[in-house]
Design brief:
Blueprint: H1 13-28, H2 44-55, E1 60-68, E2 71-78, E3 87-92, E4 109-111, E5 114-116, H3 120-139, E6 146-151, H4 159-165, E7 172-176, E8 183-188, E9 190-199, E10 203-204, H5 213-232, E11 245-252, E12 258-259, E13 262-271, H6 277-294, E14 300-309, E15 312-313, H7 318-332, E16 337-341, H8 347-352, E17 357-360, E18 364-365, E19 373-375, H9 376-393
Parallel strand pairs: 3-6, 3-7, 7-17, 8-16
Antiparallel strand pairs: 1-2, 2-6, 4-5, 5-19, 8-15, 9-13, 9-14, 10-12, 11-13, 18-19
Length: 396
């Protein structure tokens, strides 16, 4: 793979070498989220490494806050030189699973300027950049305090950031995700992880007149696809685009000779800024009623919400965005452009808690896929951009 990155300033050689070593260590640590994979160990080991590394820095206060058993957030706070505003930066330390490449997922390897490994883009490149930022700020503080947040569970129900905002306040927040240098996200979609459960009486397979949950579910899947085509594709959001839809799995049934008593479809629907998940649920329930009336009079179907995450629209973020854009121009030669996403991040949580938030990060790709990669020069430049943003946001 070939990735172009913007020319401009970068870290000194020794600092860049340390950054890359830290990133390789992070990738080698398994922090698969147990909400996604039952055998995932979670974030304990990676949090221990991050916390231990940060504790060796002078003038840095480190807090390890256990959110779930064996799954702690790590916070690192660096005091400012004066009474400047409090900036926080939020990354997540968990990853998805690595089915299909488990044999090499935790062995980071170089491919030109890129590093390959599970979670290297999403989100350990940003973790490494934030660790190096804390080290820089320990020696060259910003006008106000800066708190680095290494949160658990973003790939699941985001319990790390949800726990954090209950007792945390800051003047602004940068959420870090691998969306590429020179960009700042100010809106993104929300989504719901949903189950559609179809229930019918189990019966012997030779009973041609028995209700067939599989046939009923097939009609409902066609109805979901129709919502995707006729509602979502026909009405894209002007910034974040079309709200997404995809099926995930089908579970149920017992054997070849028996009608299934219950089948469950797992699927996801996106929600655009200004919408709620209830808007999607209402559309799905109307579709179920139509299928029942048109095709399957005895249809028993239920939609169950497994996870709901709200859309994000930045508010009150203008001063932070200005500082970030100016820092970006200094480092790569062009200011940051704003954009919207059809994906989701913890930025929605901090913004909903009243902390003005923008979303940005280094360049990477194939997140949640085999041979995920991060562009190392962009990670180094991200450290510089964040350092200058911290100083510019406070006015120095």
């Amino acid at each position: 793979m070939t990735v172009e990155h913007s020319a401009g300033d970068t870290l000194p050689d020794a600092e860049r070498a340390e950054l890359e070593q830290v990133l390789e260590t992070l990738v080698a640590i398994n922090s698969v989220n147990p909400w996604i994979a039952a055998n995932g160990p979670g974030e304990a080991e990676v949090a221990a490494f991050i916390g231990g590394w940060l504790r060796r820095l002078p003038r840095v206060e480190v807090i390890v806050d256990e959110v779930l058993p064996g799954r702690p957030n790590v916070l690192a706070r660096v005091s400012g030189t004066g009474s400047g505003p409090h900036l926080c930066l939020n990354v997540h330390t968990d990853t998805v699973d690595c089915a299909g490449w488990r044999d090499r997922a935790f062995t980071p390897r170089r491919d030109g300027d890129n590093l390959i490994g599970l979670g290297v883009a999403d989100n350990k490149a940003q973790c490494a950049a934030l660790m190096m930022l804390v080290k820089r700020l320990a020696n060259d503080p910003a006008p106000g305090p800066v708190t680095a947040i290494f949160a658990i569970d973003e790939e699941g129900p985001s319990q790390g950031t949800r726990h954090l905002v209950k007792n945390f306040a800051a003047d602004a927040c940068i959420t870090l995700e691998p969306f590429g240098l020179g960009r700042a996200c100010v809106q993104h979609q929300g989504f719901g992880s949903l189950d559609l459960v179809v229930r019918a009486a189990a019966a012997h397979g030779v009973q041609d007149d028995a209700p067939d949950a599989g046939v009923q579910l097939a009609s409902l899947i066609a109805g979901l696809a129709q919502i995707d085509r006729e509602t979502l594709a026909a009405n894209p959001h002007p910034v974040t685009g079309k709200a997404f839809f995809h099926t995930s799995f089908i579970r149920g049934g017992t054997d070849w000779g028996t009608y299934p008593a219950e089948l469950t479809l797992g699927f996801e629907f996106g929600t655009s800024p200004g919408e709620t998940l209830q808007d999607r649920i209402n559309e799905i329930n109307r579709m179920i009623d139509e299928v029942r009336e048109r095709e399957h009079p005895g249809l028993q179907a239920e939609v169950i919400i497994r996870l709901e995450n709200e859309p994000f629209t930045a508010e009150g973020h203008e001063e932070l965005l200005s500082a970030y854009s100016a820092a970006t121009a200094e480092v790569i030669g062009t200011p940051a452009e704003t954009f919207g996403l059809n994906s989701w991040a913890d930025s929605a949580i901090t913004q909903s808690a009243g902390i003005p938030t923008i979303l940005c990060g280094a360049t990477g790709g194939d997140a949640h896929a085999i041979d995920e990669w991060a562009n190392l020069p962009s990670v180094a430049q991200l450290v510089l951009i964040l350092h200058r943003t911290a100083h510019g946001y406070g006015g120095s």
